Known about the structure:
disordered N terminus, single chain, mainly alpha, 2 strands, two-stranded parallel ribbon
Amino acid sequence: MALGAVAEPPVRRRGSDYAQLSRRISQAGLLERRPGWYLARIVLTLGAFVAGWVAVFLLGDSWWQLPLAALMAVATTQVAFLGHDAGHRQMFRRRGPSELVGLFAGNLAVGLSYGWWVDKHNRHHANPNHEDEDPDVGAGALVWTPEQALATRGFGRWLAKRQAYLFFPMLLLEGLNLHAASIKAIVGREPDGRYTTPMRHRAVEAALLVVHTAAYVALLLAVMSPVKALLFAVVHQALWGLYMGCSFAPNHKGMPMPSAEDELDFLRKQVLTSRNVRGGGFVDTALGGLNYQIEHHLFPNMPRANLRRAQPIVRAYCVEQGIPYAETGLIESYQQALGHLHEVGRPLRG
């Protein structure tokens, strides 16, 4: 699968369930690109991001930098959403312009490897919530199945017992984890010398991450004391990780986790493992369109602005086919995700 575009749905025979839905979506014009919408979104998002850093520079050595760091965490996440859309080729059909936006938004602006994210996200989209195939539910700091929980040892087992209570505090470290994973993906090699993560522009990505880090540190130290600079970085990175985690957690956590024995077609594989989050324009913006997770997984290259219009078509079609369509409020989505994490740790608390 080529990097630079997230997993596309497989080609299916004309009469398949997915093909019928795809025709309805296509006939509604919902797969057409939205260049005007994305131009406005890019200008507004990057404008706010740049304005925030200008404010940091102008504010100088002040404790008011800490609230500004919280605002910059929001702006940074919104820029990351642009990188997500570029990776799915929602902005442009061609790979070149998509990669350009992705490298700028991810590596340069946020400090997140675009190539690493695309590779990881491709695998997630191909097999969402599949324990052996989806990297987002592999055993790590958190565990997602009782089997993973029982396999933990030492401090990992202590965490697994309490992970539902520690989930949000642990997200405060997600920003550091994303930076570390990006660096590891760029330099990591297998024993035979091959790079562990396929990446089209490895040298460019490495250079952009260096520029990002140098500019970030230099700006903070140039305008404030080392103590304030350190605290700014802690607040900014911690809240960015929390916001990113809170944006992605409602999508699949606590939904069915198919195994190799489950023979699901593309339509059911994507719908049954995904959850939508209800809300108006504020939720759409705050979650970067990820609240329409079912529609996004069925049509990953659909422009973000079209997901809301696609929802009633997809929901009605699922009703026709007798496929459960999960949709809930934002708070309830977190409750379901935390409930799943708590249940997974039950064998350890017995």
